[in-house]
Amino acid sequence: MDNNLGSESKTFQASLNRSKELEKDIDKNPSKYRVLTGDRPTGSLHIGHLFGSLQNRVRFQNIGVKTFVVIADYQVLTDRDSASDISKNVKELVIDYLSTGIDPAKTCIFPHSHIPELNQLLVPFLFLVSKSELDRNPTVKEEIAAAGLSNINAGMYVYPVHQAADILSVRGNLVPVGKDQLPHLELCRTIARRFNQRFGNGKEVFKEPEALLSNSPNILGLDGTQKMSKSRNNAIFLSATSDETARLIKKAKTDSIKTIYYDPQNRPEVSNLLHLISLVTKEDPFAIAEHVGDGGSSKLKQLLTESLNDCLKPIRQRRQELLDDEQYIRDVLSSGIQKARAEAAITLLKVRQAMNMEF
Ligand code: TRP
User: Fold this and answer.
1) Within this chain, do residues 274 and 336 fall inside the same structural domain, yes or no?
2) Which protein residue's CA is at the shortest distance from atom 15 of ligand 1?
3) What is the pTM of this model?
4) Which domain holds residue 287?
5) Ligand 1 centre and the CA of 72: distance in Å?
6) Do residue 67 and residue 77 come from a single domain?
7) 47: how many CB neighbours lie within 10 A of its CB?
8) Consecutive 10-residue runs of the chain (359 residues): their mean pLDDT?
């Protein structure tokens, strides 16, 4: 069966297997790892982010893994020209992080625009990558197509290299990512390896970071067919009120079969709602389906609304408090910036020493 897989899915399968090993080791040796993840500040986060990545970050920070979260504000400009929403969106993102349990005393949150040492790493890294490698990046190609860009700026091609600077500047060795980010991580590993070969003089300046893929199924939007995302208009935002949440779930797509059962292949919409309930309650989706049974989609939706609103209640409360405390958000950012700069300065010094550029 494996022989029938294309090379892309083989890489994916290999990453998935490696990720399972890593997960076991993280629990045993949390101090070995430095996790770096990040988001582009393009708007508020939704429950797909909560279950897909935010809860994972909280778990890492709480078992003592050194955790960094980069707010990739420069990266916003890859597919849009205006920076006018960036400041508002960065603050929103920090509020989303803090309200879902990311603790700034344990996790370093920083916007990469404020880390000169990180941005400076981009320059030496650019000499380690060929133009055709950048042209070939499948995720970049998809993003160009999705944004329908006719005029593509160089930042769009180069941002995966910048992302390598995000990771390597803080010497991250573990990067929790979705499948679409695997090509970027591969490039980051290539950059680390080539840097060592070209400038390391036998020494390993950079360790190659590893991808950590989550093995939970994709969270679909309320249309049940596509990934939950802001641009597809099928998301429940963390900032939504409980009434809005109820309304959105009421409108969620289901199908014409009355009895509820879990069958992601043939009943993607209903199964996604069951999956969402199971993410909240940690119950098995088959068991939830059995419980709903002939209650049909209205009972299913009622159950999702209740459990989700319960789960989001403390998050919403915390959100509200944070919205009123702008100074605190600024303090979180400036302390994150300070810590990230200190890390990146150590890295930049090593890079300059390796490159004979220490004067
Ligand atoms: N490109 C990532 C996204 O769109 C965000 C990101 C920026 C990132 N820098 C990173 C992710 C470094 C992991 C590591 O989701």
Assistant:
1) no
2) 39
3) 0.94
4) 242-323
5) 7
6) yes
7) 23
8) 64 90 96 97 94 95 98 97 95 98 98 98 98 97 92 97 98 95 97 98 96 85 88 92 97 96 95 96 96 96 98 96 97 98 98 97
